[in-house]
Amino acid sequence: MAVLAEWVESRPRIIVWLFYFVVGMPLAGCHSENHLPRLPIHGTVTTISGEKLNGSISFIPDDGSSGPAAMATLTDGKYQFDENNGPAVGPHKVIVRRTAAKNRIPTPNTNDTKIDTAKQNSAESKTEVKTEWKLTANLTANVNQYNFTLEP
Question: Is-above-0.90 flag for pTM?
Answer without folding.
Answer: no
